[in-house]
Amino acid sequence: MRRRLWIALALGLLFGLGGLAGLIDRFGNGHINANYGSGVPWALWVVFYIYFIGLSAGAFLISSLVYVFGVRRFERVGRLAVFTALICLITALSFIWLDLGHMFRAYRTILNPNFRSPMAWMIWLYSGYFLILLGEGWFLMRRDFAAMRAQGGVRGRLLGVLAFGTRPDTGQGQARDLRVVRVLGTIGVPLAVAFHGGVGALFAVLASRPYWNTGLFPVMFLISALASGGALLTAITQLLFNRDGSFDDEVRSLGRLVLLLLFVDVIMEIAEILISLYPSSPAHRAPFEEQMFGPYWWTFWILGLGMALVGPSIGLFVARRSPRWIGLLSLVAVIGFVGVRWNIVLPGYANELIPGLNMAYAETKLSLAYSPANMEWLVVSGAIGAALVFFVAGAWLFPLLGREQGKKVEDTLSTAGLADLAVKEVE
Fold first, then answer.
1. What is the reported pTM?
2. What pLDDT was estimated at residue 184?
3. Fewest beta carbons less than 10 Å away: which of 48, 162, 281, 409?
4. 24 exposure class (CB count in 10 Å sphere: 0-12, 13-18, 19+)
């Protein structure tokens, strides 16, 4: 295992051990030691839920550029993008599962759905998306599973089991597999667009919250998902796998794509802020004043604006030829997007639904002055640590970068008649 993956594993174990106390508290005491409540029902874990859902959707849509639209310059990181999307999806769903009051009743949302609720549609979309990710990953790697079975050892035996009787690589077999992947990806693209735009719709349909009640939210969620997911894939490719410079071209291409997406995201954020600040209605102004000048102003100015959007945009433009800087700046953007998500969720509670209720009772669960409890932060640490550990385990076990994957995908896409769909890079 590469030294960089060992470092990532050590960080994952560190975060995971640090979060163990929070998880024990959550399972043992429920919501008692959390600071959210009736006043602020959607809090830190919802922030990280939409954060990781965005990372998943963005990474998956980039993989679809390869397997659906035939964009060859990203083909060597196609498998990595699918696996990254899967890990981020599981992490996102773990956050929203922990946020539920009765976690072990979550299955009832499948057995007894209310299809008039956008949330019910989201659950079914997530389920379909999860199955598509599993299917894509298996069809992309099953021939390699079969070939690596002969290596023996723990890894060989595990991959042999996961091959489910598949025979080693053949030209026709790989071509058939990639055609199946193309079909799955074609189904998955509208699913990914629908469920992440649907996350924005979950907020936008709440007419009682003027800050969320805007038609721009579904589109903003999708653009920021592409930007954050692309930045994550860029950072992973450069920082974990590009030790010898063999992925320099992919990192540069991903960096240009992320730069474009960040530029679009900046424009949409500016439009949203200016349009909302223009009216004299306090209901529209208060949430923006809260995020820009409230106690958590730094999540807007430093994390969101500085680290996620403006700083990486300028840096990626200046250092667009340097893979090392592209990877580091992409990592900064990934971290900064936590601030973007924070300022989607929490400023929405700046307005009281019943004026004076916040002062009528001396009860923290009714307060609008929310600050995450230590237990909430520890749970976040544990979930992120688990995601890092599972990612490193997958990077060790699975052939995420493939065996001569670039050549095989290129030849197979040409055979399947997809070469005409390739988008040529404009230097």
1. 0.89
2. 94
3. 281
4. middle
- At 207-241, the pLDDT tens digits run 778 888 877 788 888 899 999 999 999 999 999 99
pLDDT of residue 165: 84
Do you know the residue count of the chain? Answer: 427
Q: Give how far Cα 288 sits from Cα of 298, 313, 347, 404, Å.
A: 13, 23, 7, 50
**pLDDT above 50 (res 408):** no
User: What's the 3-state SS for the chain?
Assistant: CCHHHHHHHHHHHHHHHHHHHHHHHHHHHCCCCCCCCCCCCCCHHHHHHHHHHHHHHHHHHHHHHHHCCCCHHHHHHHHHHHHHHHHHHHHHHHHHHHHCCCHHHCCHHHHCCCCCCHHHHHHHHHHHHHHHHHHHHHHHHHHHHHHHHHHCHHHHHHHHHHHCCCCCCCHHHHHHHHHHHHHHHHHHHHHHHHHHHHHHHHHHCCCCCCCCCCCHHHHHHHHHHHHHHHHHHHHHHHHHHCCCCCCHHHHHHHHHHHHHHHHHHHHHHHHHHHHHHCCCCHHHHHHHHHHHHCCCHHHHHHHHHHHHHHHHHHHHHHCCCCHHHHHHHHHHHHHHHHHHHHHHHHHHHCCCCCCCHHHHCCCHHHCCCCCCCHHHHHHHHHHHHHHHHHHHHHHHHCCCCCCCHHHHHHHHHHHCCCHHHCCCCCC
Cβ-in-10-Å burial (0-12, 13-18, 19+) of 130 comes to middle
Residue 95 pLDDT greater than 80, yes or no:
yes
